[in-house]
Structures are given as structure tokens and as C-alpha cells.
């Protein structure tokens, strides 16, 4: 596991599960690429994708 870097940007990318009862946030990322990579790893963890 890598130590997170301090975020110094102006925007973040949030990955959430829209079909969960509370729109559960699964992760917050500094770049779209990081968010996409994470989504690819968790997309099959739920019945609704």
C-alpha cells in the first residue's frame, strides 16, 4: 500500500454507488485516471455494477 500524497489541486473525482441506499462514496481521487482505474476494480462487486 502506498502512502497518499498531499492533494494540491482544485478538483477531486468521487466514485460513488448510486444504487446504494445512501449513495455510498467508494473513493475520492485526484485525477480522472485514478478514479477510472478504481472503478474498473470494483465494478463487478455489486449486482448493479
Topology:
Blueprint: E1 13-16, E2 25-29, H1 32-42
Antiparallel strand pairs: 1-2
Describe this structure as you would to a colleague.
The chain is built from 1 helix and 2 strands. By secondary structure, it is of the alpha+beta class. Strands 1-2 form a two-stranded antiparallel sheet. 0% of the residues are buried.
* Spatial strand order of the main sheet: 1-2
Estimate what percentage of residues fall within beta strands.
15-25%
The number of helical segments is: 1
Quick one: overall form?
globular
Radius of gyration: 12 Å
Written as H for each helix and E for each strand, in order along the chain, the element string is: EEH
Q: How many strand segments?
A: 2
- In helices, the fraction of residues equals 10-25%
SS-based structural class? alpha+beta
Average residue pLDDT: 84
Q: State the end-to-end distance.
A: 25 Å
Main pleated sheet:
2 strands, antiparallel
Unreliably modeled segments: none
Amino acid at each position: 500500500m502506498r502512502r497518499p500524497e498531499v492533494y494540491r489541486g482544485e478538483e477531486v473525482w468521487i466514485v460513488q454507488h448510486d444504487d446504494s441506499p445512501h449513495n455510498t462514496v467508494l473513493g475520492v481521487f485526484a485525477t480522472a485516471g485514478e478514479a477510472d482505474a478504481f472503478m474498473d476494480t470494483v465494478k463487478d462487486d455489486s449486482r448493479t455494477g
